Prior knowledge:
By secondary structure, the chain is α/β, with parallel strands linked by helices. It folds into two domains: 3-120, Sandwich (Immunoglobulin-like), CATH 2.60.40.2550; 135-372, Glycosidases (TIM Barrel, Alpha-Beta Barrel), CATH 3.20.20.80. It contains eleven helices and 18 strands. It has helices spanning 3-9, 143-151, 163-166, 176-187, 213-216, 227-240, 285-302, 318-325, 344-352, 355-361, 383-393; strands spanning 22-23, 34-37, 44-45, 52-57, 62-69, 75-83, 88-92, 100-107, 113-120, 136-137, 156-160, 191-196, 244-247, 262-265, 270-272, 308-310, 334-336, 368-369. Strands 10-11-12-15-16-17-18 form a seven-stranded parallel sheet. It has a five-stranded mixed sheet with strand order 3-9-8-5-6, with helices on one face. It has a four-stranded antiparallel sheet with strand order 1-2-4-7, with no helix packed on it. β5 and β6 (75-83) form a beta hairpin. α6 runs parallel beside α7 (285-302). The N and C termini lie close together (12 Å).
Amino acid sequence: MSQSRRLLRGVKVVLALMVAGVIVSPAGAQDFSCVITASRPARAFFPSEPIYLTITANGPHQQVGYVICDYEGRARIVDTITLGDGRPSRLRVPFDLPLGIYYLTLNFPGGPQVQDAFCVIPRPDDEAGDYGIFSFHCADQRDSVLAALAQIGVRIIRTDLSWPDTEPAQGQYSLAKAQRLGRLYKKYGMQWIPILGYTPGWARMKPENAKGRAAVAGHAWPPRETTHWAEYVQQVVGYLTPQRVHWPSEEIIARQDAHASEDLALVSRWEIWNEVDQNFYYGYWHRYLDLLRIAYCTAKQANERIPVVYGGSCGHWTELGMTYHANCKYYFDELAFHPGGPDIDGFLEIYYTGAPQIGNGYGIYHPTVHTETYPGVPRGLTPAQNMYRLYAMCPGD
């Protein structure tokens, strides 16, 4: 994959993935509505599969002309469909279309015009190459969102599996979140990067002289001692490590129709805390290193082949240098990296000539893993336009 496409995939902006039908109210027709849906998320289809759009419009039952154009504006299909009375009508695109984005225009008699789109994207099991270097951090756990991400080829999801969620009261463990997310990710054929971190209220140690956010962000305070942290990590690691996920998901492609398939560990990586050098940890550094060592040893004892990601630094060099200086270079396998801002080229140049090179000075180099991706799309696009843009930005994730 080209470097330019890799860089584009790292743009850190808000994900605006739309997966439901669009309601359009043309000017001069305040009571008019038209909803377009499809069986595939965001009206994104795979090559050679039937393309059906369901259109529901109010107003009189009437013949409505429509045009389907390709990206260059060339009319591919010109026809009519009967719409109105709030009844759903099914539009079947009558022949196979090549990969691309297609624009649908409905011309209602009397003036209202509705414009929408659908797209044809490659099947995720036709995509070869790397899928594990980048991943989505996705807190939205709706089925529709995960189905859409799986369809465009996203293979790894990163989400918090925090200590407060797992042990809200001392000694009272709950794996409900781990169970729920594990079921969801297996349903859609995705591996998981759980973030292990944060401190429950009963275990917190408030930093001395804390002011501002540091004085109130209790979840970001270090624990008073590490015994209970070790037990929390053991609970989560012991539950998730044996679990497997099959790709591609049968929700997206039937197993007997898959061109390629894999049986994988559900956990792709463990990430230990998040952006400790930002505003997600307030405390002395050596306590974080205690947490890192404990989590690393526990995870490796369960399965030594699952990498442990150092979440202590997402770009700052000082804390990473402190970690190497404290001889903790052997307690992680990869460095987390979270680039941000519009100047991706500049950010990458600064980072890769800095932070990862610190390890070289200590005789050990750790690969970088990009564990946060927020690919975004401009507002105002249809769901299919969003999907197609996201696919172009993030193929094979």
